[in-house]
Amino acid sequence: MRNSRVASLLLSATLAMNAQGADWQAVLKAVAEHAPSSLAFEEEMHAFYLEQPAVSRGTLERLPNGDLVKRIVKPEPAVIRLGRGRIQVSRDGQPAAPEAPAPAAARLLADALVAVFGGDVEHVAAIFDVRLSTERTGTWTLTLVPRDGRLKEWVRELRLTGEGHQLRAFRLTQPNGDFIHTRLTPLPGTRHR
């Protein structure tokens, strides 16, 4: 009797873990579907060459065409627009310079971020190994490890954390251990996708 109970518990735990591993697609799609179109962000960059983290603040917006627009207001105003294979940067209110070809790894990273925020699970699965972990409290973590060698030059892992349908933060860790940690909060009055 005791052995069958233990076997039943082990089977249940194994099935739950397998189901959990398959659920990352649903989490990513739900986050994209329910995300506000604009989020406030606070970002800390931790790098070996900095005595203390560099902090920036602003907004992150997902446009109807899927592009991401990061508007930095502090410490120095800038706008970064990421699209499939495109990166545009403008500073101090000046229009973006004509698009210069970005390095292949930077374009892959831009594609990856657009796919993640857009809930494009097929694209995400093609370029990342993805692992989902959940807590009973409803919080979750998606850990994305690049498969492509060019992207691995820039990214060791991308870790997204959230609760329910809301993405709360993400952390991009570089191969040398430097990382950027970004906290997100919905802006009042923004529409949901």
Keyword list:
outer membrane lipoprotein receptor (LolB), chain A, 193 residues
Strand order of the largest sheet: 5-4-3-2-1-10-9-8-7-6
Second rung of CATH, namely the architecture: Clam
Poorly predicted ranges: 1-22
Integer-rounded radius of gyration: 19 Å
The CATH topology, please? outer membrane lipoprotein receptor (LolB), chain A
- Judged by helices, strands and strand pairing, the structural class is alpha+beta
Give the mean pLDDT: 82
What is the number of beta strands?
Answer: 10
Largest sheet: 10 strands, antiparallel
The CATH superfamily is identified as Lipoprotein localisation LolA/LolB/LppX
Strand content: 35-45%
Number of helices: 5
Shape summary:
globular
- Can you write the helix and strand succession as a string? HHEEEEEHHEEHEEE
Task: Kindly state the percentage of residues in helix.
Answer: 25-40%
CATH class: Mainly Beta
Spatial gap, N to C terminus: 52 Å
Total number of distinct structural domains: 1
Explain this structure to me?
Strand 3 and strand 4 form a beta hairpin. It is built from 5 helices and 10 strands, in the order ααβββββααββαβββ. The longest helix has 21 residues. It is an alpha+beta fold and 193 residues long. It has one domain: outer membrane lipoprotein receptor (LolB), chain A.
